[in-house]
Amino acid sequence: MKPFGREMTSENNLGKTKPVVIRMLEALLFPKKCLKCGIYMEEDGVHPHTLESCFCGHCMKEGVHPITPPFCISCGIRFHNSFNENHVCGVCLKNPLKLGQVRAVAEYKGIIQDGIQLFKYHSKLSIAKIFEHLLFQTFLQHYDKLPIDLIMPMPLHRAKMRKRGFNQAYFLSRNFKKLYQHSFHRLPSWDMDMDSLVRIKKTLPQTGFDIEERKRNLKNAFKIIREDRIKAKHILLVDDVFTTGATCNEAAKELLKKGAKRVDALVLART
Ligand SMILES: [Zn+2]
Ligand SMILES: [Zn+2]
Questions:
Q1: pLDDT at 118
Q2: CA distances from 68 to 109, 138, 196, 243 (A)
Q3: 39 CA to centre of ligand 1 in angstroms
Q4: Residue 205 falls within a domain, yes or no?
Q5: What is the pTM for the complete model shown?
Q6: Cα Rg for the chain, rounded, in angstroms?
Q7: 229 by DSSP, 3-state: which?
């Protein structure tokens, strides 16, 4: 462990500080384990809000695969070719999305895929904060210059919420305002909205469905309960994974029908 020195405190994401001695005690009492393989990990020198603070070097070898150009300017899928220009993909040309644009942090593979599964299905909530930081960076990269009015985590149906115990999209964006204030020392021009959009239909799991079946499954799945709030607004939906986009697209359809000006999406991973 590092000796006491000039650096007597460590900074967390919101600028609060925790004395080094507390951190040392915590490390002794609750030694950190890799969330995937369970091996004990050294915490020295690892920034607390990085994937390296959750996964050991061996598991990190699976890597993160960020969405870098070229990608589809509509659905955000990454192109694996040498043509270096972003453009609209064939799927979007054939079936245009209701969403304006989708942007993702990374491809749904490697340690991001493992992390999402541990987070969602094994309630490893400690990783949520790290994912939120990554998502916030991608937000700044693609949405900071756009006139966004409202940010909405994708809602879960009541029954799903009861079963899982938490909404992953909410955990991925609940501190966005604080993160923004911490980065820019001012309030953002947008607001968070957690209750205007609700999911009213208990849908079947989308796995194994083709695009048309997914659309049918999700038909009328969402309801706007605060129409006054969304009228003429530019809305950004937040979700964990975007596959065909049927879920976000159905929510966008409902929002636009009820008067929203434009709906985009920000997701952690793109399959
Ligand atoms: Zn590991
Ligand atoms: Zn596309």
A1: 92
A2: 15, 11, 33, 18
A3: 6
A4: yes
A5: 0.85
A6: 20
A7: helix
